[in-house]
Design brief:
single chain; 267 residues; six-stranded parallel beta sheet
């Protein structure tokens, strides 16, 4: 019988790969994300994502899923319960942590038609909201999420949990400035709607047919940047019928995307 990769020698706190794991946990390694837990690794294995390193705590882990992850990982390391406790983000330990590579998409990768949907999120501040936006884009069968002026990064460990692992399969583009994102949308014939609570037009009025459609939603605290308003796009609003003056950004995005999807697919 061939030896198991889980029989790797244990490493200590000063090992370079363990120190890198701590850095990934702090969201300070671009292009890498921390994946922790049995369910999370099950999702990871359904994608072609590269796993740079797998850290296994035998006192806490399930051997079955651990063997599968170890087979895929470039490197496998055993860590003690003490070291695992220093890096875990979970209350209930599963003993499984990986450093995974985030996929990369380029603006030239996309071709849109009249059924296409794009969500643009401007200035998103919180990892939980970013993850939920990614999950919402997937649920509405939108083509991609575009980020401008972003503060939360895809590499934040909280994005993986909030997106239910879909951060590894849902296309996300980032633009350095808003005019570049607006130009990219115009060049592809996309009809853009700014989500603005102060807009007079309801989101129920447009028919969202005949062209690709994009919605631009703003940050949780500051709303849409004035630079988006300067692009000359029309605005729509979701009527507020109670005392609240706006909705959570991910909830607003879900309402808008599914309204457009209903029109495009003839629901």
């Amino acid at each position: 019988m061939a030896p198991s990769r889980l029989d790797a020698l244990p490493i200590g706190a000063q090992h370079p790969q363990y120190r890198e794991l701590l850095a990934v946990r702090k969201d300070s390694v671009p292009g890498r994300i921390l994946v922790e837990g049995s369910w999370e690794h099950t999702q990871l294995l359904t994608t072609p994502t590269a796993i740079d390193a797998f850290f296994y705590c035998p006192e806490a882990a399930e051997t079955g899923i651990a063997e599968q992850v170890a087979t895929r990982a470039a490197e496998v390391f055993r860590i003690s319960p003490k070291l695992y406790a220093r890096v875990t983000r979970k209350n209930k330990s599963d003993g499984l942590i990986s450093i995974a590579r985030l996929p990369v998409w380029q603006p030239t990768d996309f071709r849109f038609d009249e059924s296409s949907l794009v969500l643009v999120a401007d200035g998103v501040e919180y990892a939980g909201n970013l993850g939920t936006l990614i999950r919402t884009v997937d649920a509405a069968r939108a083509d991609c999420l575009v980020l401008t002026s972003r503060r939360a990064r895809r590499s934040h460990p909280g994005v993986y949990a909030a997106s239910r692992g879909l951060v590894l399969s849902t296309p996300v583009l980032e633009f350095d400035d808003i005019p570049a994102a607006a130009t990219w949308l115009r060049e592809r014939g996309v009809e853009v709607h700014l989500a603005d609570p102060s807009a007079t037009g309801s989101y129920r009025v447009p028919q969202y047919r005949g062209k690709p459609t994009a919605f631009v939603v703003g940050s949780e605290g500051g709303g849409l940047s004035r630079h988006w308003h300067e692009q000359g796009f029309g605005a729509v609003s979701i009527p507020m019928l109670g005392q609240a003056d706006s909705l959570n950004v991910a909830l607003s995005a879900g309402i808008l995307l599914f309204e457009a999807r209903a029109h495009k697919d003839g629901w």
